[in-house]
Amino acid sequence: MFLEMKQENLKKQVKRGGNMPPFKPTEQQRKDVSDLTAFGKSMEEIRPLIINKRTNKPVSQHTFRKAFKQEMLVGKTRADWEVAKTLKNMAVSGENTQATIWWTKARMGWSENMNHEINGNVQIELVADIAEKNDMKEVSGRQKVIEIAEKTG
Question: Which helix (H) or strand (E) holds 9?
Fold first, then answer.
């Protein structure tokens, strides 16, 4: 058992390059990864920005996944949660009408569109203001009523 543990430790040391200690991210690096994930950036875009202080190079994909697994999993969800809380507070405060309107449309299904279905005969009167000139003479009467009978079935 002791020999197996010693061999496992030797394998880890060879992978890291001798007696190098494992990479430990700083709190700032954790915050940066969380924020960039929240902004929609992928691991491939974020990883080159995380520099290992010992090597002065970006961390490997394996190291990145291992060190920042939690930040990659919750970064977007945490940001969405914060934005949703802010929007909800703005909507219910009564001080931000746009937020309230958005909330009623997006969350409650309200709409400004009113669609009415009509069955049977329909008669529509359109009133148009005619202000054009015909052969330099003004068309008699400023308004004209057009009756349209439409049968739907």
Answer: helix 2-16
